[in-house]
Known about the structure:
- By secondary structure, the chain is an alpha+beta fold.
- It is built from eleven helices and 15 strands.
- The N terminus and C terminus are likely disordered.
Amino acid sequence: MKRAGLILTLVAAIALPAQRPAKYFPSRDEWQRLPPTELGFDATKLKAAIAYAKANGGSWNFEKDQVRVFGTALGPLPKTHAATNGIILRHGYIVAEFGDTKANDPVYSVAKSFLSTLCGLAVERGLIHDVNDPVARYVHDGGYDSAHNAQITWKNHLQQTSEWEGMMWGKSSDFIGAEEFGTEQQKPRTIQPPGSLFEYNDVRINRFSLSLLRLFQTGLPDVLKTSIMDPIGASQEWRWIPYANSYVEIRGRKIGSVSGGTRWGGGLWMNSQDLARFGLLILNRGQWSGQQLVPAKWLADAVTPSEREPDYGYLWWLNTDKKAWPSAPASSFAAMGNGTNTIWMDPDDDVVFVWRWFRNDAMDEMIAKILGSLTTRGNDPDKKGHRLAMASAHFSRPTS
């Protein structure tokens, strides 16, 4: 009987499906790694994916490319950057890591998604009542005095449909002129009413950043550090660097207004491990070890397709029509910057992937290889198919 009972126990154990590890959030000093098989990966296929990533490093060169592509710099730039590097997380654990993931390099427009998240904090704290409100109702520094600019809402800025007109730190919102804008200069066009046209425009994002600074009355890097990066255990090495000429006086203090990228130097400089922590926070609807750091509702709205550009939310890139990454779920989304620098998140499969300094056209194939390595798919049912599994109505702070 004992032998029969043992056999039945073994058979039952074999028949039971493997249980995925519980949700995990790393401490400041330790980040657990688990074998691929324990996280639902085929180890051989995952190893091939990492080999592919290492073989597809990018060629961005600060000295040769920066001014040629973007025009006259306003802030500092490093001489070099790390080779391609990255991290893959599942359920919060590190399943793979390659390259120098502790190199604090510029993340370029990944910073825009950080600005979006800080805007969510401004709403939560009552500094903004409703994203559909005109910015002019809150900010009175001359930037929204014209009849045109007075119509611009916070949501317009978040969706890059503001059509804000003016100068920011010596750069014109029209993007005209090779000296100031390099090969990415634009042709003259008629300005459109706010909210009617999507245009990726760093001058307008820098105006948005200054407007947030006016609300918080303190440097945005300080808000990010105390409200998000320190609570998630990030390093102390990251920096958000203003331009040399982007300082304003707030309550008698000179504070640098930071940019939404490194198009003209400066910007957010951060390592891949810290980016992965931020991605894990966002994937988990702003929750970290039981603490709600960013409103879940805000993050759901942030990855809701905008009317003018369905593959864009509140300064996040989406995969709504599977155009960006055909191999990825439509619910996946990313923070992306020049170089390329990417935090890609797959809510369906509970995966975060940070990849830095790679060939842009290699991303979809890399995603295909990662997802093709999974032996279990879609095993985070709370998020499956819903990006961040929340309704899409706009987020307002409760009046009470």
